[in-house]
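Table S2 (text version). Query chain:
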Amino acid sequence: MARLLVYFLTVNYHCAALIQRLLKSLPDSSNIAHRVAIVNNSPGDRQLEACAGPTVSILTSATNVGFGRACNLGLQWIFARDPQAIVWLVNPDTRLLPGTHLPAVAEFFERYASISILGTIVYTDSQQVWFAGGSFDAAKGAIAEANLISKDSEHPYVECDWVSGCSLLINLARFDRCPQFDPEFFLYYEDFDFCQRYRQQGHGIAITAQFGLSHAPSSITNRNRFNKLHHSTYSYAIALERYADPLARWGRMLRIGLVALALLPLQPATALGKLYGLGRYFRRSAPTTPQ
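Corresponding structure-token output:
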């Protein structure tokens, strides 16, 4: 079997210490070549320079362009060097599970060649399942996490509607041109949109428990609750506009607004974040058209 190149891709936003921890969890490259691409969304973070090395490249953005656009920079850089590579997109606040065997990753895509986008099971640091597959009900507008697979599963993978960008593998060989996240999504739901768009184009989406990560949820985004909620609400509204039935979309956005108003006296940062996200959605000039 030919040696395949695995690129780990992650995005830095003032979290160099977390990325250093992530790098320490990666296996050596004695069995299969791998590289790491770090897109630096915080150019002033000088601590990140310590992460650079022979197999680690740092790509610096002029400003914070958001998660999706930063991933696009990394994907374009990788695709230009090896359009047959496997890209493993990982959050900076993650670590590979002990015993992760990179040749098994390459063998997986050799064996199941119809899968273009693969999510992995993700655990919290306390070994609780954090993500094991995503479902979507257009009639209800329900974008949900679903426990579709476990580490004891006899199935190598389970097809699903979407997988988390926390741990998402892309088989570039399945794409005629470089796959891209939609830049309309600054933060949140870009992984859902990515999977929905490429699923509609005939690409296979699946989740596996054969390899995975441990994750410290929201250790970065929880630093600013207003920003977290306003970005997530805006992105959620865009996702509903594109993929949910109209009645479900308007019902869910009405509910968000009412809940935010009820929370205003008790949790002002949460409430204002939601309301700002909804306001930003309704103020935008025209519906977006994904490519």
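Notes on Table S2: The first strand starts at residue 6 and ends at 12. The chain has a mean pLDDT of 91.
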